[in-house]
Specification:
By secondary structure, the protein is of the alpha/beta class. Helices cover about 55% and strands about 5% of the residues. Helix 8 (about 180-210) packs antiparallel against helix 14 (about 315-350). The longest helix is centred in the C-terminal third of the chain and has 34 residues, at about 315-350. It is globular.
């Protein structure tokens, strides 16, 4: 074993342990520390016995065990614990050393921490880590951002431990300045919320509208995984649908229908509101989880508004194909919205983002990994200035073949009283985005009527604002024009 470690890691929970084992398996020596130091000894004497892993029992010992420039990575709970470790590490480290936060920190916190650490003469990295327990061990998707000078120092380790696509390209590249890495991870998680909700709606339609059994739904998802929907989430959904317990009953039927969340989907929605981007699908996915948590109220309401279930009379095979197309179309919208948010935020925060590279980072290791992401990379490779995925030739052509089925599914769900908030929100966004004229002219007239907020005219140039004295008694004074 080397006398000095290549990198130090704080936090030996599930993700921390697995990242350490991954790093060691790639030839790196890792020094480890945990606030509960007994975990360090248990890990090194147990799972990590005989590995190139150095046990340390204090931050001082951890820092002194790592080669310069020191690289210390934290995999601890977001929030106060991250700030506490930063405050304790700064006095122990030297100029040019690197502090890395691999947790799910909010990007605005990372912006502030990066500034603070750089002012202390050190470098800072906030990196998204996606893939869960298995990804951490076998190869996650990594989205690092922060101090640009840190990337050459951590690149070898990060790209070695990350997932790889078919040609061996690592699912890890430098994202951008200060909070860019954690912002991209946040959007990733928001898209994950959307993907999961869309799959759940497809499941609900097949079960409650078409009347398929769990075995039949499992087969459908397995078949879908051989199409454009080929993805990790579709793959595991098929496995979930087939899982039985010892008494022969399906596990899925025994799981309570209340979903939890850790907040990253909510953060994505808040960021979209701040940036003025209509992230409608992901917003509905978050609200669907909130609605699911109102279990007792829903049960009570269901007795007041009972649903009448009728046997499906149509062509089951054709309608299942319509559901598949609706799922794919909605998935395109989810990514289109997510990328629009990233592009707008990049301007706001001064980040230089490589959108094709981000798609490649998500191709393997992470929860939303799918073959579909290759098409997104191609879209941005062909046009780095692409405003929206719907304007790309491949995606615009695809959407033209999907919309009829999509409308059919949403209409049938509405008629039968089956909630499909993500499918419907995506379709409404599509119809709005592809409309040359929306009824916002009336909205602006209303705002001007009650608040003199002014409006632009179709018969004059953009940026020139007008006010009408609608009642004849309001006067000609208008309010200031601004966007909140």
């Amino acid at each position: 074993m080397k006398n000095k470690a290549d990198i130090g890691l704080i936090g030996l929970a599930v993700m921390g342990e697995n990242i350490v084992m991954n790093m060691e398996s790639k030839g790196f020596t890792v020094a480890v520390f945990n606030r509960t130091v007994q975990k360090v000894d248990n890990f090194v004497k147990g799972r990590a016995a005989g590995k190139n892993i150095i046990a340390t029992h204090s931050l001082e010992e951890l820092v002194s065990s790592v080669e310069r420039p020191r690289k210390i990575m934290m995999l601890v709970k977001a929030g106060a614990p991250v700030d506490s470790f930063i405050d304790n590490l700064i006095p122990l480290m030297d100029k040019g050393d690197i502090i890395i936060d691999g947790g799910n920190s909010h990007f605005t916190d990372t912006i502030q921490r990066c500034k603070k650490v750089e002012e202390a003469g050190l470098l800072y990295v906030g990196t998204g880590v996606s893939g869960g327990e298995e990804g951490a061990l076998k190869g996650p998707s990594l989205m690092p951002g922060g101090s640009n000078k840190a990337w050459p120092e951590i690149k070898e380790i990060f790209q070695a431990v990350s997932a790889k696509v078919e040609d061996g390209t690592p699912c890890c590249d430098w994202v951008g300045e200060n909070g860019a890495g954690h912002f991209v991870k946040m959007v990733h998680n928001g898209i994950e919320y959307g993907d999961m909700q869309l799959i759940c709606e497809a499941y609900s339609l097949m079960k409650n509208l078409v009347g398929l059994s769990n075995e039949e739904i499992q087969k459908v998802f397995s078949e879908w995984n051989k199409t454009e929907l080929d993805s990790y989430l579709i793959e595991i959904t098929a496995e979930i649908m087939g899982h039985k317990e010892e008494d022969g009953r399906f596990t899925i039927d025994r799981i309570l229908d209340t979903a939890g969340q850790k907040g990253t989907g909510k953060w994505t929605g808040i960021a979209a509101l701040d940036e003025g981007i209509p992230l409608t699908l992901i917003g509905e996915a978050v609200f669907a989880r909130c609605l699911s948590a109102m279990k007792e109220e829903r049960v009570e309401a269901s007795t007041l508004f009972p649903k009448t279930t009728t046997d499906f009379k149509g062509d089951k095979k054709a309608f299942i194909e319509d559901i598949r197309k609706a799922l794919y179309a909605s998935k395109i919208i989810s990514y289109a919205q997510g990328y629009s948010l990233m592009k707008t935020a990049a301007t706001t925060y001064g980040w230089t983002l490589n959108y094709g590279a981000i798609a490649l980072m998500w191709r393997g290791g992470c929860i939303i990994r799918s073959a579909f992401l290759g098409k997104i990379k191609e879209a941005f490779d062909n046009n780095p200035e692409l405003k929206n995925l719907l304007l790309d030739p491949y995606f615009s052509s695809s959407m033209k073949t999907l919309t009829s089925s999509w409308r059919n599914v949403v209409a049938e769900a509405f008629k039968q009283g089956i909630p499909v908030p993500a499918f419907a929100a995506a379709l409404s966004y599509f119809d709005g985005y592809t409309s040359s004229r929306l009824p916002a002219n009336l909205l602006q007239a209303q705002r001007d009527y009650f608040g003199a907020h002014t409006y632009e005219r179709t018969d004059d140039k953009r940026g020139k604002f007008f006010h009408t004295n609608w009642t004849g008694t309001g006067g000609s004074t208008a309010a200031s024009t601004y966007n909140a």
